[in-house]
Amino acid sequence: MFCFPYCPIIDLEEEYQEKRAMAKKKSVFFCQNCGHEENKWLGQCPACKEWNTFVEERVVSVKGSSAGTLKTPEVLSLDEVESDDSARVQTGIRELDRVLGGGIVPGSLVLVGGDPGIGKSTLLLQVCQHLAGQQEVLYISGEESLAQIKLRANRMGAFSNQLKLLCETNLDLIRNVIEKKRPAVVIIDSIQTMYNEEIGSAPGSVSQVRESTNVLMQLAKGLGISIFIVGHVTKEGTVAGPRVLEHMVDTVLYFEGDRYASYRILRSVKNRFGSTNEIGVFEMCKEGLVEVLNPSEYMLSGKPENASGSVVACSMEGTRPILIEIQALICKSNFAAPRRTATGTDYNRVNLLMAVLEKRIGLPLSGYDAYVNIAGGIRMSEPAVDLGIVMAIASSYRNRPVDEKTIVFGEVGLSGEVRAVSMPEQRLAEAKKLGFETCILPEVSLKNIKGIGEGDLAGIKIIGVKNINDVMDL
Questions:
Q1: Which of 190, 191, 314, 340 is the most buried (most CB within 10 A)?
Q2: In this structure, what DSSP letter does residue 384 have?
Q3: H/E segment holding residue 246
Q4: DSSP string covering 3-28, please?
């Protein structure tokens, strides 16, 4: 007798649905600079034109039908939308509030980037210290243990019981905690340590950073929770991960400064709710970051007396005027090609201004080494510092010091003309407050200054110049 083997009946439709729901794995290549995706490796990224930036990553995509589960979104007119700018939450740190545009906007996603050890975690822990007395704050760390966070918090003083700590890197668990606790503010330290189980690549990869930020953005907008994200930076100074990360968040803040120096500068490079030119100045102390309420006085501390090549100029950072000391050293070169160095300002801009001096004034700088430095380590790119650089170079070449009570600002063109700059009245008021007696500025800016000799501008001598020849005559 012949027996057939046992064959179970297979539901082909059920098997088909299971195969559709199974995760499909594939390898793709991401550009580490801009996040561009390709199916194969390329030597040069077609989006950002950078070389050797593609890395291979395993991406898991789950395909399935979600028909019938989607809800129709509600469509509103502009008049039906409620918005209140007074709903901003003050952090208790005035310099941070200035950079954010007046405080934290509920439901916003803020990215804080900077070099390792610059003070990102310290600043956000101080924000938690101030906010925890008003509302519940959740600090999520993927880099430090609870004991390590406690040790850092002990140096800052007392904390409220409304500050909650969580050490976790699994984004699904973090999302469940946030939806359950509903805190007012969440700190993620850092985004490179978070991982989503649906993504097959390692934590910190391009796809993980992008998808993790997308989940946090949905939580912030959907629940009205303000979320701060700490992001590591690359050697070029940009946030590690895809460039699309900066487009997804509402605000991007960068910590600048030398990690071995005491000062720190918090700069806003993107802000949907405020100015993108504001900066906040801090000083690193043993108890944490301390605000520097008068950055101009801080930057000018230690300025030499009666030294040639030293000039004080004024630059605007957003709505804040900052006085800086520009130093120049001109010396005879021993090489066929003179050496040029610029610290704190654009190197090409310095070469351009030296060419203008050589052509329009006749200074023979082609055979001299030139070293230009903005004291204090701060970096300034505003064209208003051009006149200060020109005067510092000429002062060093002629070995004639500029009056200590004199301040200058103005943009210099290729024809040697001194062009107008914005907000001259605010610059003059800042100079008068710090005790300067003379100001050299573009002549065309005089018409924009009201109340010369009155109020905040009383007692300061104002000299308008048309070109650099007038400056040299002074």
A1: 314
A2: G
A3: helix 244-248
A4: -PPP-----HHHHHHHHHHSEEEEEE
Strand-strand pairing, 137-141 and 185-189 = parallel
How far apart (Å, rounded) are the C-alpha atoms in residues 109 and 105?
Answer: 9
Q: Enter the tokens of residue 358.
A: 């050589």
In contact, 51 and 43? CB cutoff 8 Å? yes
Distance between CA atoms of residues 393 and 373, nearest Å: 11
Query: What is the value of pTM for the model shown?
Result: 0.76
Of 336, 35, 380, nearest to 207 by C-alpha is 35
Asked if residue 160 has a cis previous peptide bond (ω within 30° of 0), the answer is no
Instruction: Name the burial class of residue 465, with classes exposed (0-12), middle (13-18) and buried (19+) by CB atoms within 10 angstroms of its CB.
Output: buried
CB 359 within 8 A of CB 353: no
CA 470 to chain centre: 38
What distance in Å separates the CA atoms of residue 307 and residue 184, rounded to the nearest whole number? 54
- Distance from the first to the final alpha carbon of the chain: 121
DSSP 8-state secondary structure symbol assigned to residue 176? H
Question: Cβ of 371: how many Cβ atoms within 10 Å?
Answer: 18
pLDDT tens, residue by residue, 17-33: 555 544 455 678 888 77
C-beta of residue 286 within 8 angstroms of C-beta of residue 275 = no
Give the C-alpha separation, 162 to 149, whole Å. Answer: 15
Nearby residues of 433 by Cβ (< 8 Å), 6 or more positions away: 456
Q: How does DSSP assign 434-473, residue by residue?
A: TT--EEEEEGGGGGG--STTSGGGTT-EEEEESBHHHHHH
Amino acid at 9: I
Determine the distance from the C-alpha atom of residue 332 to the mean position of all C-alpha atoms in its chain, rounded to a whole number.
39
Q: How confident is the model at residue 293 (pLDDT cuts 50, 70, 90)?
A: confident
